[in-house]
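Study this chain:
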Amino acid sequence: MNIKSRGIRLPLAALSGLLAGFAALAVAELVSAAVRPESGPVIAVGGAAIDRTPPALKDWAIRHFGTNDKLVLQLGILAVLALLALILGLVALRFRRAGAGGVLVFGVVGALAATSRPDSTSLADALPSVIGSLVGAGLLYVLIGRLTAPVHDAADAAAAEGEGDSALTGGWDRRGFVVAAGAAAVASAGAGLLGRSLNESRGQGAVASRGEVVLPRPVSAARPIPSGAALHTPGISPFVTPNGDFYRVDTALVIPKIDATSWRMRIHGKGVARPLTLTFQDLLKRELIERDITLTCVSNEVGGPYVGNARWIGVPLADLLKEAGVRPPSRGGPADQLVARSQDGMTIGTPVEDVMDGRDAILAVGMNGEPLPFVHGFPVRMVVPGLYGYVSACKWIQDLELTTFADYDSYWVKRSWSQKAPIKTESRIDTPKPFARPKAGTVMIAGVAWAQHRGIDRVEVRVDDGPWMQADLAAEDTSDTWRQWSLPWKATPGGHTLTVRATDRTGQTQTEQRTPTIPDGASGWHSVVITVD
């Protein structure tokens, strides 16, 4: 092999690896349409990576990438696969079978990831990765074969080199390689696009079922929001968070799209005298209640965005449990944990005592006057006031099991989070924003405070190291919602640090001590630094 030929073939070998990887993923996408979208290798490996990510790293990703953390993960997986495909292409140029075998190894990894996911119910989940890797390995073997096709004899080689347009120039099948590579690229693109289209069409039945849902009038409607509950201060969070702006923190790389007409949910387990199986229509026929409830994610840092307020409509969860014969521990019930299972395999454990203590814990079917959006749990999710989402807010719910905390650890508890997690008293400055440069004079400091199921009694603001000043509280909707507050401040030129703290109705004042989100939610005072011009 001459130097010129080798210089040409090295980048083409790397390109062969890329094409093989692309073909493997495209075919896997197409096969996953016949199995289920979650069985695709990128989704399966991404899900496995999420399951094994240390809590601190997960919180870092949420803090820096927000709701784009899943997109960043998938792009990262694709980048790593592309790099490995390049390497396998180069390896195959020297060791043809080893390079192709490397592609098969990644197929095995994808298959194991798919079948080990909590929501996997069949070995068929391995098919996309297996079939995709077989196609990718075969393609790499063929392409490298075109790069290493021997010259027939010296006369042919000399003639080919002289003509400059032969299929055998430099000792490799140029024409054969170009044809094979081009055909593979076109076929792979077509397979990938077809697979993506088929996967997206799988959810059309669910979309249609949601469009047909008419939420009944609740037997117990939420009272009108008090006129003074929503301040009109520029920059403050709206009292009711629009569905499109409501935070989303979960582990689903593919949003489940469940057909409401086929949805079922079981209630069973320890202490259940009468197991129940409910359909979506069964829930709609029951006496629904409507409540304003603020939800908070345990991954919310001090001053963070993962808190939102909405008007929910649903079935009282305690009523369903009582119908099934469940008694809380305080009344002799044997189960102290209610484990909710999601369609995507998530498990969330909630204290039975909290669900049945009289608070408005519900199986929600509506959010802000419409059926639940898919991203927020359609057709049914749990909402329990006063508890962080990871111990209460199961989306895409399909199973409720009564058990004990001693017998079962839910998904997040297995990953070092606390079994029980009441929401901490917290407050946030929404305006002015960090590093803002307001003009000297009256500046409105405003934000929100929350202590669900206890209520906010007082909010105080401090400028630099000055005295605490009591802020004006907006009218309270309920103790289960956040409360807006404001304070007019006569701002003087220079740099200033604004700090806020809240006190709940139990007399507990928000602690100054900073703690991380792990294991049961962040704490500390929220501060912003500004410069007054």
Summary: The radius of gyration is 29 Å. Residues 3-35 form the longest helix (33 residues).
